[in-house]
Amino acid sequence: MRGENMLIDHLNARIIKEKSPIVVGLDPRWDLIPEAIKHENLKAYGETFKAVAESILHFNKGIIDAVMESAFVFKPQIAFYEQYGIEGIEAYYKTCQYVKEVGGIVIGDIKRGDIGSTSEAYAIAHLGETTIGNRSLKAFDSDFVTINPYLGSDCIAPFLNQCQTHDKGVFVLVKTSNPSSGELQDLFVGNTRIYERIADWVHGWSIKTTGNSGYSSVGAVVGATYPEELKRLREKMPNSIFLVPGYGAQGGGAKDVVEAFDSNGLGALINNSRGILYAYRKTGENYQIAAKKAANEMKASIVLELERVAK
Ligand SMILES: O=c1ccn([C@@H]2O[C@H](COP(=O)(O)O)[C@@H](O)[C@H]2O)c(=O)[nH]1
């Protein structure tokens, strides 16, 4: 498989070129969207899902445009859109489309996984193509999605198949950033913790799909809030790119994520959602200016920390 995997190599080439391993999480919250945007849509559509969806799209496009100089990877979390029904899902779809239009990469944070046949439908919906008679249509065209391995390997296989067919990628939940992630993930099965067992699976899948850059498009989600575990997991999954949430609002900082990277500054994508989207609420600036500054600062802190460690 080495060398055939283009998405991951393209991603790594851009991380190097743009010196940016950051991901901007697009988690729109109605109560935190600037009043001026909401006002315009409430006037046009009243207190409806349509007004919310239009506001979300306006806000997201503004954020994407503002941070493009320091970020090219975006992670919309689908739950924030689903709560606004069909219109919310449309805003999710259009957000993904807009990221693609401006040359960005989309990680659909969908955290899916079910029995094999249902996982296949999820995988087709978010990574593949739906067949209707003689036509094949893309439903949601993400580059990567997040997946939940709790149902076992047959729930993962359909996603891996779509990755191979359509040159897409997945991030498997390994050690999540939330405070109670250890309740299940840290339990021992024999001498191995559950999250380590999942890391072994991910490693097994990733070595079969490693690209020229030495990484696979089968990646792992590992929280910035567990830096010790992050370090050990880096050793366990040397070919997997990590998606690292937990930076910013959840307490993680540049020092906590540095072990996720290899000596070339590759191997990790660090996500920040609230800390960038709603930076304006702390600074009182225009939301785009504040988001741009927050993204630039995050990128600079991580680059500085990587340089410090490399010395
Ligand atoms: O372990 C995990 C997995 C996913 N997430 C998601 O990342 C963002 C984090 O948002 P912040 O505002 O930067 O805290 C959010 O979409 C989560 O659902 C995570 O936090 N931890």
TrEMBL record:
Positions of the catalytic residues: K111 (proton donor)
Limits of the Orotidine 5'-phosphate decarboxylase domain: 21-289
InterPro entries: Aldolase_TIM, OMPdecase_type-2, OMPdeCOase_dom, RibuloseP-bd_barrel
Enzymatic reactions: orotidine 5'-phosphate + H(+) = UMP + CO2
Keywords: Decarboxylase, Lyase, Pyrimidine biosynthesis
Top-rank taxon, per record: Bacteria
Major enzyme class: lyase
Annotated EC: 4.1.1.23
Pathway stated in the Swiss-Prot or TrEMBL entry: Pyrimidine metabolism; UMP biosynthesis via de novo pathway; UMP from orotate: step 2/2
SMART domains: OMPdecase
One term of GO molecular function: orotidine-5'-phosphate decarboxylase activity
Entries under Pfam families matching the protein: OMPdecase
HAMAP family: OMPdecase_type2
Stated family: Belongs to the OMP decarboxylase family. Type 2 subfamily.
Protein name: Orotidine 5'-phosphate decarboxylase
Organism this protein belongs to: Fusibacter tunisiensis
Gene: pyrF
